[in-house]
Specification:
Blueprint (H helix, E strand, L loop, with lengths): L4 H14 L7 H8 L1 H21 L2 H21 L4 H11 L4 H7 L4
Helix pairs in contact: 1-4, 3-4
Length: 108
């Protein structure tokens, strides 16, 4: 089993790029463009995952999910949310029925 070390390393790089000059990297340029640009990229990658799934090509699905996860990490880092924060939520939900978990959420 592969652990989360690689995701932690990627997120550390994202943290470092957050304050970098926009012309220094793709990620720094995304941060400079702001939350709307980052959200647009996450939505684009999610759509590409859906298209890959419809095609049924496993390798394409894996590659597109990797892109989606990467851009989701960019978004998390934008809001100073860490991988461990998400993992705590996964652990909280483990073993809980999806129906029960949704019922437990406060309604707006």
């Amino acid at each position: 089993m592969i652990d989360l070390e690689v995701i932690h390393r990627v997120q550390q790089t994202l943290v470092e790029r957050k304050g970098a000059a926009p012309e220094s990297s793709y990620v720094a340029s995304l941060y400079a463009k702001g939350t709307d640009a980052i959200c647009k990229k996450v939505a684009e990658e999610a759509a590409e995952v859906i298209m890959a799934a419809k095609d049924g090509d496993r390798l394409h699905i894996v590659r597109e999910v990797c892109d989606l996860w990467f851009h989701s990490l960019v978004l998390l880092t934008q809001f100073d949310v860490g991988v461990d924060d998400v993992m705590v939520e996964f652990r909280r939900r483990e073993g809980i029925s999806g129906i029960d978990e949704k019922r437990s959420r406060p309604r707006p």
